Amino acid sequence: INFILSSGGQAVVEENGYIPLDDTKAYKSSVDSGKIVVSGSSSVTPVMEKLIKRSL
Q1: Residue ranges making up the domain that contains 19
Q2: Per the domain annotation, does 1 fall within a domain?
Q3: CB 43 within 8 A of CB 29
């Protein structure tokens, strides 16, 4: 969630035709590794896949 709300995440959101947040900050990871599980609406799957790739 923190990455999605960051300036990098919001750039991906905007690149995919969604409306980005205006006031965002750079993302700084608090962990070295982990697992991302995406579930929910299939309408956001394409942008979620791009967010995952960008966050790595």
Answers
A1: 7-55
A2: no
A3: no
